[in-house]
# Entry
Amino acid sequence: NRYFGAVTMETASGKFEASQIGSTKMACDNMSVEKNFLDMVQKANRYIVSGSTLELYQDNLLLLKFNKAE
# Structure
C-alpha cells in the first residue's frame, strides 16, 4: 500500500507531528499491522535522527525505529 499525509518536523526541538495520514486500501492478509503502524505514526510527537536511524517517540516512549536502506 501507499501512504500519504502531512508531517511537520522542527529540527531544533525535535517536535514531530503527523496529520491527515492515510493509505491505499489494497487487499492484504493482515490489515491490523498497517493500522497499528499508522496509529503509531499519528501518536508520535518527537523524533531523533542519529546517523542513518530515525526514531519516533510519544514523549519518552519509542514507537517506531527506521534504518536507512542502502
